[in-house]
Amino acid sequence: MGLLPSSEKDSPTNSKTALGSEPNRDIPVSSPSDSPTRRSGRRSLITLAVLAGILVLAALGCDSDGHQSMLSSTPWTLDGANGPVAREQLLLFNVLLWTMVAVFVLVEGALLYAAIRYRRKPGDPLPPQTHGHTPLEIAWTIVPTILILGLGIWSVFVLFKLEPGEAIALAKEQDREPLHIEAVGHQWWWEFRYEDAYPDHDPNKPAEEQMELITTANEMRIPVDRPVIMTLKSDDVIHSFWIPKLVGKQDVVPTRANQMWFLAEDPGMYYGQCAEFCGTAHAQMKFRVHAMPETEYKAWVDGWGGDLAEPMSPEAARGQLVFLGDGQCVTCHTVGTADQVNEVGEGVQHARMQTYIAYTEWLRKPAEERLEDVRTGNEPPTAFAAPNLTDLADRTTIGSGLVDLNRETLRQWLRNPDDIKPGNRMSELAAIYQTRLDHRADLSEEQLSDLVEYLMAQRHLPVQ
């Protein structure tokens, strides 16, 4: 016995009739303006607009006349570079860049032309499928190979020109000696050591006076038209030495010494930067290069570390006592002399760095062991690598080039270095910043004023 539909409306015939009588009730009909193709097109336009906005913003951030830009005001010229090294590097950069731009425009242009000209329209049959085109494949293999080989060979020749031997040969042509400077990267400042700050010796000088030893920080002085050979070292982590308008980047690696050279043809101020992320205050690890005529440079060398340009005032004399006493500045800073370097290249700062390493290892010991060391007088000394302040008042900036040097900014720096350079080692490690919760210097306002006067008295050049 079979089952029958319970009512006429449930029968298949009636169901078909119902569906046939109202065909559009449950089936949505999309308008042509909301078709998937049009929606996809709108999304593509929005994506292109966003990308174009990003490119415009990136372009606005580029300034060919900026302090730390190697680019020229016009992309095809070399007026953004100073000296033979910078020009050679910028020329290679320009040729590589515009060659890649030309290749990109040709390839992407052909791609866009083909995509637009031969796009498939509704109702078009599939085009004939082509597999292989021997002349075309040979062409797009040979042309890039020639380009890569040509640019690669040129790059190798440029690398040879960047070797210090080129600087020595250039100096011989000028019948003079190149200037050798050692740059040591610290977290987060630059130390500059001149083993012989004026290599053209006076033969009438005694032998012990032939060598001019200078140690300074964050501001390097060089004579124009003299090749400068840099020896680059690091006392902690990897840094990168870069003076965009004079020379390209060179890594500064612990346990080894890298070399580079450059020459400044025009007097002026050139700006440098650490170009390798090296910790908290990496972005504030700046420095400056003063390129000056030979006579001005010689005057700086002769005056460095000698008699002060003006006698110290009574306030400055009291500040010296703060420097040597309550301020404990002398623990890490040197004033009045170069940081001597021994026969293996290790100097005062290296010894201070070893002390810092020993101190940080001591801090990892359990608290009870450290307390016992303090009671028995066995705790390690707390000297750390810090800038030589012999020529402080002859410099133009403080805090690795972050602010102009004057009495107000120096006082602010001494009171609380974190206000100017967050993450600096001075406020982190110096004893006078550890006794207050706000990490301000544990010195009276009078002591701060006297200390400022003493440091601002460290001037050997006449005020210009």
Question: What does it look like?
Answer:
By secondary structure, the chain is of the alpha+beta class. It has two domains: 214 residues, Immunoglobulin-like; 143 residues, Orthogonal Bundle (Cytochrome Bc1 Complex, Chain D, domain 2). The chain contains twelve helices and twelve strands. The strands form three sheets. The chain has a five-stranded mixed β-sheet with strand order 3-2-1-5-8. A hairpin with a 3-residue loop joins strand 6 and strand 7. It is globular and about 95 Å long. The chain starts with 11 loop residues before the first helix and ends in an 8-residue tail after the last helix. The N terminus is likely disordered.
Separate helix tally: 12
Strand content: 5-15%
CATH homologous superfamily assignment of the largest domain: Cupredoxins -  blue copper proteins
Number of domains: 2
Could you say what the CATH topology of the largest domain is called?
Answer: Immunoglobulin-like
CATH architecture of the largest domain: Sandwich
